[in-house]
């Protein structure tokens, strides 16, 4: 329910350009004081009128002064060129490897189904290119009887064979687009071409999209082997569980970064779907999305027959991806109170100047983290303010400015700082810092830095605030889960050692920490645990025509599991439904569709749609969890046996069993470090 403001005058501070917000001070009806730089500004005449109440003379009651998040419809002052249309280019690998993986059929089906739901208006444009050892373009010009393929085999100097017929108006050429999507899956079914010229295909995409800007969606299934940006395998499978240090966390070439920066300059964002069964050097490929403000989707061991869980995840992700909101040609600036400054940004973007991020595309699923520095004393201030302003073009071609303003108290007592600490934000920011450190230095250095963060924190609290003479690790209430979260971080794919981890999967986990929303990251670090066999409608949410049960969130400990229950663990990108040996047979029958516990198959990875109240409750709850996240989660039904327990207990970091008894050891380690 965002207040959208249409006004000829967008009121901003004349000195620092902060947008007027709820935390400014009105000295009188004609003057306001900026909450960031403290300059006194005049109130324009137009601002005296309140369009909501239709009254005059109450500027402090205007919606932009009543709401800390607002969206302005921008005037032509905020445009360097007319707002661009929504433009979408799909670049699809069609080598033998890609055909074997079988993704193309499901991509075409999904796009056909969602063609009318793509965000945009009457100006929306689309285009397609496919590639193996050559690059293929498709003429979809209105008036043709069928799509026409144009092949460019000179990949060392890619050119665009036709400039006005490859990116076409979706409305005018819809029938040709549908015909192409219907024929694409069979067009390359007999291909024996094993090479992949990803670099030349991206160069072609850049040339095609440069006149307008827009979004390029790339589907890749293997290591690029031909032309610019070709790569060689750098992974040594024998080193996957080495504790000597992980090599090759950075890119092998700067080709993809340079191309991404060129794309960013032309307002082109590149999103990468990597569906690979082998090493594909994600550390290099991810740069194309990282620096162009794109998104990354990774499906290891993808195969349409052999890996149904990944296929289902791909289909769900694709449906959301194609229909989610999108903004184009955006920039985001973050301003902060005098005395504070921005230190580092984390996320996918190009930093155009110290406080300005260039975002060719924006979407609702990407997150940013920002580190601040205190440059000058804040002793004279009682409040510190931060304002993020995002200027973007909506998919309907409207220039808009979304403004978030946050205000926090400045305190003089350290105990107040501890009491107000946000342990989840701290954990995720430290994770971002550790990932940067592991790439610029070493993984072991990054892990040591995380442990030292806990040691320093506990030591500082003990020496400055806590006057309790307790032995052991003493932490303030707001931070009591901090040591546990850091231990959990050290066990994540991104940062773990001694456990076999594929290099691409490690890189993907690192990218997730840098780009995903905080609630999603926290579920990966410290999963949510629910009991489902006794689920009821008590306290349920009523959404549209659906009743969504709300089972209690349980403490993440093996003590909470029982021999007669069914427990759901939500790990962010995967659900585990753990069925204990003595679980109620009615639950097994009504929810899983199996006559008894023994008949539950070993690799079950879906919940059947059964017509009974218990099944409907469980599915409504799972669907609700899925709908509230950026990336879909696969589900695994886990039986109560030794191997299944090992899977589950690696997440239960407080469990007292031998599988994960490390929390107590970790606290002892912290104490030893403090005494040093």
TrEMBL record:
Residue ranges occupied by any Gelsolin-like domain in the UniProt entry: 551-622
Q: Where are the transmembrane segments?
A: none
List, alphabetically, the InterPro entries matched. Answer: ADF-H/Gelsolin-like_dom_sf, Beta-sandwich_Sec23_24, Gelsolin-like_dom, Gelsolin-like_dom_sf, Sec23/24_helical_dom, Sec23/24_helical_dom_sf, Sec23/24_trunk_dom, SEC23_SEC24_subfamily
Instruction: List keywords of the entry alphabetically.
Output: Cytoplasmic vesicle, Protein transport, Transport
Please name the SUPFAM superfamilies in this protein's record: beta-sandwich domain of Sec23/24 (SSF81995), C-terminal, gelsolin-like domain of Sec23/24 (SSF82754), Helical domain of Sec23/24 (SSF81811), vWA-like (SSF53300), Zn-finger domain of Sec23/24 (SSF82919)
Keyword Transmembrane part of the UniProt annotation: no
Q: Outline the extent of the Sec23/Sec24 helical domain.
A: 422-523
The source's superkingdom equals Eukaryota
Limits of the Zinc finger Sec23/Sec24-type domain: 10-47
Annotated Sec23/Sec24 trunk domain ranges read: 83-322
A Pfam family the protein falls into: Sec23_helical
| Topological type in the membrane | Peripheral membrane protein
Q: Where in the cell is it found?
A: Cytoplasm, Cytosol; Cytoplasmic vesicle, COPII-coated vesicle membrane; Endoplasmic reticulum membrane
Q: Where is the Sec23/Sec24 beta-sandwich domain?
A: 327-411
Q: Which family does it belong to?
A: Belongs to the SEC23/SEC24 family. SEC24 subfamily.
Q: What PANTHER family has UniProt attached to this entry?
A: PROTEIN TRANSPORT PROTEIN SEC24B, SEC24-RELATED PROTEIN
What's the protein name? Answer: Protein transport protein Sec24B
- Gene symbol? SEC24B
